């Protein structure tokens, strides 16, 4: 199934105005989706029987500084072609273009739970905010890190004062609050 | 009589716990011995390889990506190389493809052997570890023959292989592959019918089909739950459609089925490796011989002016890759592996991103351990086969 065939099926469910097929260098069908209808489109991609992209392969932001819109969020997905997970094996790349001054995308973690941590990683390393995300915290970098390391305007060799040897300044209240927050999250899972 | 006080207990497990396969931290919420909550923290091994790679030339990235998932080094470099070659539009000679298949399957066996050894050790079958590392040692020796480096050979290159196979390669690999099915039987004699093993692994850490797919746990995890998805079958690459092999599946999706699936995968990998080895001639073409991409042979560099120029160009500037993005999936030891790479037409990548199966496995971990006993947490972590270098990159 190529991009136009996928778009034709999609346009029965979501408005076709926000969908646009684009060329890709590796031959994988690629469509660009408007940010506003991302979640509806993704839900249709997962649920429409002809499509059934049940498997979110990967989610990655790309920083195209100085071009505007600066970021592209790429969603790779696959339909497995076996009972319950699609009738034919196929792959699709969905892109959302995001301007640098308003790096905000709706979260798709309600569609694919797998997106939860990938979106946290994208927030951590690129500073992309995902609205309606259940738990948007840093994941790979320390919680108190400043800046977003994988952005193109983040310097490669950066000298920061060494923090390790400073005595840890945590009051009793802060300590208890942090334990309580962790417990709360653990209970929610 | 006063009312009994009851409350849950918070236990911190890791990041230095020996059974967390590196540096995984889990905050467990316990009610007696039952796990009622779990909060996973990763990132302790984050080394910023993706950022570093953006400063390197395309060929220089290979040693870096091999250090991401450090138990499946050649699997990482294989998917990176395939993605870059897709953008370059290169088609490898048949012999190179066959050698790559052979190395990928040997890598899968190496990785599964470490998994089986450590998984057994954690559940209490200590001797399995000794057996597994005995065979893994032989495979590391094969790497040493190939490249002089046991863990991260950097033998796969964009445009082919670094050099031709060494003398005696066929005999060494053939000797290993002939003996290995017998060794597999030894492991299975120790574990498959072992009552303690069965009690520790059966109906533990259940991950059903739909949960596995929703959380992106393709590979052995999904196959143990009965989804026969294997990239080698469904989206063939490197000519896997011409090899004769089975895709083992389980039914229950518990720790025991994951064990059975991975052991059977080692047997199938041996089959594929034997077929690949039979197709490879001891001497022959080992790269595409396009001297804009791969360095020219040394004897020509010393005698021909053009070859000398090409040599200097490759080692000073590298080569440019056409603008665009590519993703080529392969079946790694832990599931679907693949590099998303983005090029702007220059000699350095704009972005590379590994699809890390362990990252998704860590994410789904609470689903498998909540409701179980605390002693089973170790068994479940072992069965998901997470490698923290893969998670944190």
Helix and strand topology:
The complex is a heterodimer of chains A (189) and B (393).
Chain A: H1 3-10, E1 19-22, E2 30-33, H2 38-47, E3 55-63, E4 71-79, E5 90-98, E6 104-106, H3 115-126, E7 129-131, H4 172-188
Chain B: E1 9-13, E2 25-31, E3 34-41, H1 49-53, H2 61-66, H3 73-88, H4 94-123, H5 126-147, E4 156-157, E5 160-161, H6 169-191, H7 195-201, H8 209-214, H9 220-224, H10 231-234, H11 255-279, H12 298-303, H13 305-316, E6 324-332, E7 335-343, E8 351-355, H14 357-369, H15 374-384, H16 388-392
Antiparallel strand pairs in B: 1-2, 2-3, 4-5, 6-7, 7-8
Explain the overall architecture.
The complex is a heterodimer of chains A (189) and B (393). Chain A has 189 residues and is of the alpha/beta class. Chain A has one domain (3-188): NADH:ubiquinone oxidoreductase Nqo5 subunit (Beta Polymerase, domain 2), CATH 3.30.460. Chain A has helices at 3-10, 38-47, 115-126, 172-188, and strands at 19-22, 30-33, 55-63, 71-79, 90-98, 104-106, 129-131. Chain A is globular, with a radius of gyration of 20 Å. Chain A starts with a helix and ends with a helix. Chain B has a single domain, classed as Orthogonal Bundle (Cytochrome-c3 Hydrogenase, chain B), CATH 1.10.645.10. Chain B is 50% helix and 12% strand. A 3-stranded antiparallel sheet of chain B has the order 1-2-3. Chain B has a 3-stranded antiparallel sheet with strand order 6-7-8. The termini of chain B are far apart. Classes of the chains: A alpha/beta (189), B mainly alpha (393). Chains A and B meet through strand 3, strand 4, helix 3 and helix 4 of A and strand 2, strand 3, helix 3, helix 8 and strand 6 of B.
Quick synopsis:
Chain A contains 4 helices and 7 strands; from the N terminus they run αββαββββαβα. Chain A has helices spanning 3-10, 38-47, 115-126, 172-188, and strands at 19-22, 30-33, 55-63, 71-79, 90-98, 104-106, 129-131.
